[in-house]
From TrEMBL:
Coiled coil: none annotated. Residues 58-130 form the Thioesterase domain. Pfam families: 4HBT. InterPro entries: HotDog_dom_sf, Thioestr_dom. Transmembrane segments: none annotated. This is Phenylacetic acid degradation protein PaaD. One of its GO terms (molecular function) is thiolester hydrolase activity. The lineage of its organism: Bacteria, Pseudomonadati, Pseudomonadota, Alphaproteobacteria, Caulobacterales. Signal peptide: none annotated. It comes from Terricaulis silvestris. It comes from the Bacteria.
Amino acid sequence: MSDDVSAPALFDIPEGYAALDWRRGFVRQIGPLYRRQNNGAFTMGFRVEEHHTNGMTNAHGGMLMTFADMAWGHIVSVETSSYWVTVRLTLDFLSSAHIGDWVEGGGEVLSTADDLYVVRGKIWAGDRLLITGTGVFKPIQRRDPRPGEKAYVTPA
């Protein structure tokens, strides 16, 4: 007997998005996730599926919060080619995402003082703004740059 709740949903991915090949740990549980590079900026996205939802079939707040953490923290990966940790994440929930919605997220670096990256970000579905907020992230371990990333520069 299988412990699967439902078969994976089949859906179209917006143009330019590619699946992230993250198979370890927690990300394996919440995926699939996607990213796109457009004019040097990265956004991430996911389609709200049944396993992302709460009892009202909206995207669970914890899923949206996790997605914000990953989408905004991903900017640190791009800027530094390093693994990072979240120091602080502050979110304002403004609207809900529904099963089947394509959710996207991105942000911009406001500061890099003291090797802490302060990022202002947003999460949206179509023209609906779902979340705004800020995150503080710290690079912790260098690694080889991935496509589209910058080489790590040791802080002065």
